[in-house]
Amino acid sequence: MSTGREFADLQGKCALVTGAGRGIGRAIALELARAGARVVCNDIDPRTATETAALIHLEGREALPYTADVADGEAVRRMVQEVVAAVGHLDVVVNNAGIEPSSPILDMPEQMWDRTLSVNLRAVFLTSQAAGRVMRDQGGGVIINVASIAGVRTPLALRAHYCASKAGVYGFTKACALEFAAYNIRVNCVCPGVIVTPMTARARRDPDIMARWQREIPLGRLGTPEEVAKVVRFLASDEAAYVTGQAYFVDGGKAMH
Question: Taking the mean position of all CA atoms in its chain, how far away is CA 191?
Fold first, then answer.
């Protein structure tokens, strides 16, 4: 089995992945570990965070589960402090945690809007701020945010809050990259399209939705979490040393128009 180090050697690096308990986050955590990083697997669910860390341990790699709500500023600051205290440095942060409840705009409860923006956008700011301070003081680092094509080019019905949050992640990534460049911190984002994850499981059971997706995606299929993770691995590595402020679409061509 490939170790992943052929293209992106992260040996000796410490990487924090939020929302690492399942789906894209779990795939990213595994991919970074295979490239040699020691991975902190954050999730709000301690069971899934522990499961991801266990999968990494089974491959003979290093991982640490960490339970925290990344929409809570104090919890985020404590997490970053404890990671640095345990490992001594923090080199890569992947802001992946996200939620996607559904509701028409006219019926959407304020609480649903607020929670979605908190988890999907506010948490990206909080984690980038806390980690950015550490990276500034240590001389550099990498931050990678998981946005979505839904926040840039292909809005989703019943997901206005999700689209708004991911558009915010896209814009924040560029502003953050501009400010953090002075500290040798690179900031990029990936924009997945339709990926086979628990978040899309319900829609994937609908044959009409699946048929429409296959028509709309030029490559004719859904993506996998591992395909997103490989792009993240590249961005985390020195292979991408001259890349910052960019958005990488991993969507089978769906948003090319």
Answer: 9
Copy the structure tokens of residue 105: 């705009």
Q: How many CB atoms lie within 10 A of CB 167?
A: 17
Domains defined along the chain, listed by start = 14-195+225-241 (3.40.50.720)
Report the predicted TM-score, pTM, of the whole model to 2 decimal places: 0.95
CA distances from 8 to 5, 75, 200, 229 (A): 5, 31, 29, 12
Q: Catalytic positions, please?
A: 162
Residue 249 · residue 255 · CB < 8 Å? yes
The alpha carbon torsion through 215, 231, 79, 169 (nearest 10 deg) reads -50
Tell me the pLDDT tens digit for each residue of 149-194: 999 999 999 999 999 999 999 999 999 999 999 999 999 999 999 9
> Do residues 56 and 29 make contact, with C-beta atoms less than 8 angstroms apart?
yes
